């Protein structure tokens, strides 16, 4: 006896959930277990879902089967359509998952099956978490990380730009204000290299490239429009459609984030699978190192570089890794509007432009330009600087902004959040440390990235001499309550260390 | 601005879930993440919950906060009551969980904090799964297993019977029909030992002791009534209130079951924490070994025994382990009514009583009787047999049945499910193997334990000579469709091996 399909408008966040009423005949007859896997069939379509039991007919009636948003869309039939439900065989890759939980090494086939099931939302949150933790603890070796990355790149869409090279850059993250992409992409695209950069929104940081770019232009563009735009302008800074590239990645992130799992294996697979699926042939990877960065020592950074190099090479991706100074934020602003101001100051060669952001962006752009076979090793930096100083990078940026959909932005009067306060130096001395995580937290408490104009504006940097009472940074908050949260947080620990110049512990990095 | 509490009648299965409408001002203002942890406060009470986002005002309105059943009960305020919600600090034990995920050893304090948070439903399904898998892969050492078991026994209620010894028995499971508890408890209680056995329902098996006992008597009794009953009759076979004993165990099982995780560490902690919380001082543990049992070899059984012994001794529990023959089901029936028939046949000294069930029960009861300081080692078996043969065990059973609430049961005409078929020997020979898992699966497909009269009735056992076409077992199904499922399963593989007598591979076990 079929049930009638109904939609249960709960966002189960990349888990297919089916809802049955506890008094439903089928539920009682089949002896289903809560959280067990069921197969839902209609119109020749079939999906797997995790069963939830409901005691309220306002959610599902006795003769209905409810599906969560994700599952409803995946099944693709209308509300009221008859559906049948049965105990499901577990997803085919579950034996492989069990072997990983038992500490065994997985084969290429195992990881393909697992990734395929994950991308099709056949895993429950419990199974997903088990996979993520088993990979973390069972220590994927580098071959397994390659198998995983390769499998992730193969499910979902895969772009082919029909030219060579297709370049991209990526930073492993953790450094507030580090908006180099918004300078590197215009420079590289102005030179003529194809650079289809898909940007992400902030997950735990005060702003992602997509959030900052959104101050200047629309970023949510349909997949196909994005492709046309990139072909015309040689680059873009947009968000959208990325979930069709390496879709398993987004599903895994949904459980990695709440657990703060960010292991080397997961990071490599996540980054490289997206880049390969996006059709990139060359990638410049930025690994910042610093006492409050994701990577805290040079030996750790080198190990991570080797791992990226091994997997990229197996995937046929040309990879250049730079290890950079992650001891403090890059640029002055932390938060969408403040960062957009920094970027536009650099692009317009404004006298107040933050030099560290300019310099780092030029160095990265220079290395990327050298992916062009016609550019001699060592010449990239000079060419990048010429493109920036001559205004060609600004011109390219303006073209991309117009193509994505321009938004009003006044560089001289950016719209900052109204509730401000300054954090002052408690004593005279030299700034010898800035805690990236602390400042990111203060910027988030102030309302970033949700409130575009909220964030932190740095007024002193490592190595600067400050007098007692001199402002170290200014916080912009959208609401009085957020100002007070941010203020309390900065009172407990401002994130700044002040001492003597010789206490500065600089990393010996490339740049 | 507080929201109004509403109850969302979804059984989230031991996870506190809070529901906010996507258009709720608070959701938008706070920048909550899907699946993030929130703290819900009302009336001085506070609980942690995982946030789900809803797009339907029939589930929660724009000015409401919904709580899942578990969470609603835990918070303990009425619908409509104002509640406030904020981003929650993660549970205090999360740093310890992270360390376990990173492969570190946990301290006693770490495990106390983790178990406390789990029992209070402060963990999301993702965090719970991470803990379970990390323990599996990170290999809890035996000290950590003791810390875990001890912590689990300490949260929730803990019974004190104010006498000594308080005895119990437990089987690690996996052997269909193995209903020895329903014989051992009346024998031991008839002798006068206090035996407060809490029984469980089937999780993945065709019947648990509580399901079989429920054919004869009510088993769902309030916690306090159970205590009185045990004091009067020296024993019981009931289910109920056990979730108040070692409550973290039930929460962990909710994620272990879908992953089929049944590691030695989890098994030891689960069993011993419940027994200690139930006030037992002495435990007899049955570890069946066989090619299709949970434990498949003697070395494995011995390792498991040592682990149980180590942890029990650290917890102050006297433990006697017996390793028994698990090469085939015990008794004839598999399924609630069929097993109840077997048990009552043994208790009434019926000529058809299955001798293997009688013998195993007497041996177990004998070993338990020897927990009595007044009984000489080796005398237990004879005393148990006297109690059974004299009818004193039956008398005790009847008293317990009446005390729990008698149900009508006709031993000569048990109510078996109507749709039957027999599985026949495909050739002449000697039965040399019976696959426990296969027969359990067939019994479940036939409808057990939901359909009380469904299951499998064994007509031949290992060592029996059979002719071609002679029935090996009979299947009773509640519905025609279930008969057909069970039939298909038995056609693919009957679960019986037939060959020569010398191919029988007997385990060299205690009994």
UniProtKB/TrEMBL annotation, chains A, B:
<dbReference type="InterPro" id="IPR017459">
    <property type="entry name" value="Glycosyl_Trfase_fam3_N_dom"/>
</dbReference>
<dbReference type="GO" id="GO:0005829">
    <property type="term" value="C:cytosol"/>
</dbReference>
<keyword id="KW-0328">Glycosyltransferase</keyword>
<protein>
    <recommendedName>
        <fullName>Putative thymidine phosphorylase</fullName>
        <ecNumber>2.4.2.4</ecNumber>
    </recommendedName>
</protein>
<dbReference type="Pfam" id="PF07831">
    <property type="entry name" value="PYNP_C"/>
</dbReference>
<feature type="domain" description="Pyrimidine nucleoside phosphorylase C-terminal">
    <location>
        <begin position="430"/>
        <end position="499"/>
    </location>
</feature>
<dbReference type="InterPro" id="IPR036320">
    <property type="entry name" value="Glycosyl_Trfase_fam3_N_dom_sf"/>
</dbReference>
<dbReference type="InterPro" id="IPR000312">
    <property type="entry name" value="Glycosyl_Trfase_fam3"/>
</dbReference>
<dbReference type="InterPro" id="IPR028579">
    <property type="entry name" value="Thym_Pase_Put"/>
</dbReference>
<dbReference type="Pfam" id="PF02885">
    <property type="entry name" value="Glycos_trans_3N"/>
</dbReference>
<dbReference type="Pfam" id="PF00591">
    <property type="entry name" value="Glycos_transf_3"/>
</dbReference>
<dbReference type="InterPro" id="IPR013466">
    <property type="entry name" value="Thymidine/AMP_Pase"/>
</dbReference>
<dbReference type="GO" id="GO:0006213">
    <property type="term" value="P:pyrimidine nucleoside metabolic process"/>
</dbReference>
<dbReference type="GO" id="GO:0009032">
    <property type="term" value="F:thymidine phosphorylase activity"/>
</dbReference>
<dbReference type="InterPro" id="IPR036566">
    <property type="entry name" value="PYNP-like_C_sf"/>
</dbReference>
<keyword id="KW-0808">Transferase</keyword>
<dbReference type="InterPro" id="IPR035902">
    <property type="entry name" value="Nuc_phospho_transferase"/>
</dbReference>
<dbReference type="GO" id="GO:0004645">
    <property type="term" value="F:1,4-alpha-oligoglucan phosphorylase activity"/>
</dbReference>
<dbReference type="GO" id="GO:0006206">
    <property type="term" value="P:pyrimidine nucleobase metabolic process"/>
</dbReference>
<dbReference type="InterPro" id="IPR017872">
    <property type="entry name" value="Pyrmidine_PPase_CS"/>
</dbReference>
<dbReference type="InterPro" id="IPR000053">
    <property type="entry name" value="Thymidine/pyrmidine_PPase"/>
</dbReference>
<comment type="similarity">
    <text>Belongs to the thymidine/pyrimidine-nucleoside phosphorylase family. Type 2 subfamily.</text>
</comment>
<dbReference type="InterPro" id="IPR013102">
    <property type="entry name" value="PYNP_C"/>
</dbReference>
């Amino acid at each position: 006896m079929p049930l009638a399909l109904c939609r249960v408008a709960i966002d189960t966040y990349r888990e297919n959930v089916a809802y049955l009423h506890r008094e439903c005949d089928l539920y009682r007859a089949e002896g289903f277990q809560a959280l067990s896997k069921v197969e839902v069939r209609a119109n020749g379509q079939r999906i797997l879902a995790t069963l939830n039991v409901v005691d309220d007919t306002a959610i599902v009636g006795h003769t209905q089967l409810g599906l969560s948003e994700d599952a409803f869309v995946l099944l693709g039939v209308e509300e009221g359509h008859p559906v049948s439900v049965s105990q499901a065989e577990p997803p085919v890759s579950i034996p492989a998952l069990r072997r990983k939980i038992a500490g065994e090494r997985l084969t290429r086939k195992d990881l393909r099956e697992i990734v395929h099931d994950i991308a099709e939302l056949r895993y429950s949150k419990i199974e997903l978490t088990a996979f993520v933790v088993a990979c973390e603890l069972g220590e994927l070796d580098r071959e397994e990380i390659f198998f995983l990355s390769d499998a992730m790149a193969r499910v979902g869409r895969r772009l082919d730009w029909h030219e060579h090279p297709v370049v991209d850059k990526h930073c492993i993250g953790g450094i507030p204000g580090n908006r180099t992409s918004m300078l590197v992409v215009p420079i590289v695209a102005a030179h003529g290299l194809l650079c289809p950069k898909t940007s992400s929104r902030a997950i735990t940081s005060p702003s992602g490239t997509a959030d900052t770019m959104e101050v200047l232009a629309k970023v949510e563009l349909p997949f196909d429009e994005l492709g046309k735009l990139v072909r015309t302008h040689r680059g873009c800074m947009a968000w959208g459609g990325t979930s069709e590239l390496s879709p398993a990645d987004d599903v895994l992130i949904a459980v990695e984030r709440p657990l703060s799992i960010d292991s080397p294996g997961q990071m490599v697979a996540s980054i490289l699978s997206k880049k390969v699926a996006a059709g990139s042939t060359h990638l410049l990877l930025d690994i910042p190192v610093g006492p409050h960065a994701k990577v805290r020592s040079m030996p750790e950074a080198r190990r991570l570089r080797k791992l990226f190099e091994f997997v990229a090479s197996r995937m046929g991706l040309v990879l250049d890794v730079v290890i950079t100074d992650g001891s403090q934020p890059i640029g002055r602003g932390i938060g969408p509007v403040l960062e957009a101001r920094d970027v536009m100051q650099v692009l317009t060669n404004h006298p107040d432009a933050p030099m560290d952001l300019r310099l780092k962006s030029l160095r990265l752009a220079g290395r990327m330009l050298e992916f062009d076979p016609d550019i001699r090793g060592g010449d990239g930096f000079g060419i990048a600087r010429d493109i920036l100083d001559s205004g060609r990078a600004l011109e390219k940026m303006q073209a991309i902004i117009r193509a994505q959909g321009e938004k009003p932005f006044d560089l001289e009067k950016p719209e900052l959040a109204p509730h401000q306060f300054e954090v002052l130096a408690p004593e005279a001395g030299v700034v010898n440390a800035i805690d990236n995580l602390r400042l990111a937290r203060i910027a988030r408490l102030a309302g970033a990235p949700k409130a575009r104009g909220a964030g932190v504006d740095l007024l002193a940097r490592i190595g600067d001499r400050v007098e007692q009472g001199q402002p170290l940074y200014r916080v912009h908050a959208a609401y009085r309550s957020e100002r007070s949260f941010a203020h309390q947080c900065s009172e407990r620990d401002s994130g700044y260390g002040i001492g003597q110049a010789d206490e500065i512990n600089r990393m010996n990095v490339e740049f």
